[in-house]
């Protein structure tokens, strides 16, 4: 059994998040106190040495970002905690904030000291009221103890933290859009450079880090970079929190060293597939990521290996899919999400993704031709290369990865007008197996269009012209006498 | 609480808090994150307090924590007895609290049918 290693979740589930004394008892704020005794450069160097990479998705070296922000000129600087967490299926950041808010506050204060900022802002979606509440409690407690606010621990470093509520638009998690949103403008992205570290909030140097990234900071300062590097892989040290969801038995949060394999997470920690069905694919990285098939289950997970597979680490959502999943339909789900969430500023993303979605709809409804597949792939690449921000640049990933690994399923939809998972309505039919049907009439009674005919205690039949494929009969039949063909 | 003015003051407060802690009491941890609450863990929490009082059990503290990670088995309750490995119970709905209190806390036996195999392992 692979061991979970809890660095980020060191206290979550163990302490009362609304009681700062519980946090202190676990050596809380000692890392901040220690950092205040060091030079700013030394704090940044420790983070650099630890090789910690940003947990918000991109995996950019955190120490490097801190260094840029430290070196940026300006008497006013900001530390922003990105708690937007927009990926469907992801809830890691929420759990950290709800379970151990001080670990994030302490990380922010250390960051503030390191780069020379006096102000921190937590950008969090309004849909996370409990996390917001616990953060507020945490901030006020920390202030009472002199651990935030003026002259922290008697030093000449002062640092205050505010909370800003976001409306929960996915693109607002993108750092430039997030900055505009805090400034009171529409959450639209802009070109980089300039990077926020040089010109961010109100054009001042701004360090933006993800919740989980910040929760890693205090243990690194306290225990040192080498301690941190004993976990994980050389290029991706430390641990990663994953939100395991979908068709897996043990849905929940896991924190494992980087380099743990997908198989270990899904089959050991996750307990395998629900209902003992067959594994089909695992989706990582949210809408920016992709689907990974069975043959790559033994891949050790880190930023680079997932990217090589055409997916992404993303923020850590991991959605397990069983054999009853249609991969074209999955691509359609994510594309629909991106289309809904695109800010609309650039043409490739605004128009390109809508066209891609239309292609997928054509395929799933059985109206596509083989030429459409080539068109789809070339358009996907245009959107990828031509979009303004990370949302558009990664939007085609779900299509490209499912097409790479499940090309035959796309072709079946087109050539055989068949959806092997039985998901795409236009391509399936419900039929009654006469030998198994007892004539109990249950299916006929639930059918909303009266498409099922037959007498009591005699096998029934389905009139295909009337059937709207709602599946009510299928889920009602107690004798497994209805099949999808 | 007067504001802490130095590393030394913080260290001594931390030590004081560690020492002050009653090492002999039983601590029950109820996971009250969003996932837990939507599965009814706040009711479980209230019921635990009630049953513990009804049974006149002493030296027990019930605390609210965030999510433990076992979302599939919410509401979860972890029982920490001094000198023993923590025992993690899952699907402890309000109705099951009575059994848990009686079996584990009154009779001192493990309530096998509520247990989650893997207990919560700490890293540091
Ligand atoms: C469309 C889009 C959405 C994003 N959403 C989030 C998010 O919800 N949370 C987050 O931390 N980062 C998100 N990011 C990444 C941020 O832009 C940024 O890279 C990150 O917050 C930096 O923190 P880190 O270096 O600690 O990972 C998103 C990026 C894009 C392109
Ligand atoms: S929203 Fe950023 S490219 Fe479309």
TrEMBL record, chain A:
Keyword field contains Ligase: no
Keyword hit for Iron: yes
Highest taxon above the source species: Bacteria
Span of domain 4Fe-4S ferredoxin-type: 428-459, 461-485
Keywords: 4Fe-4S, Iron, Iron-sulfur, Metal-binding
GO MF annotations in UniProt: 4 iron, 4 sulfur cluster binding; metal ion binding
InterPro entries: 4Fe4S_Fe-S-bd, 4Fe4S_Fe_S_CS, Nuo51_FMN-bd, Nuo51_FMN-bd_sf, Nuop51_4Fe4S-bd, Nuop51_4Fe4S-bd_sf, Soluble_ligand-bd
The family this protein is said to belong to: Belongs to the complex I 51 kDa subunit family.
Protein's name according to its UniProt entry: NADH dehydrogenase
From TrEMBL, chain B:
Database matches in InterPro entries: Thioredoxin-like_sf
One Pfam family it belongs to: 2Fe-2S_thioredx
Source domain of life: Bacteria
Coiled-coil portions: 3-30
Gene Ontology MF terms in the entry: iron-sulfur cluster binding; metal ion binding
CDD domains: TRX_Fd_family (cd02980)
Keywords noted in UniProt: Coiled coil, Iron, Iron-sulfur, Metal-binding
Record PANTHER family: NADH-QUINONE OXIDOREDUCTASE SUBUNIT F
Protein name: NADP oxidoreductase
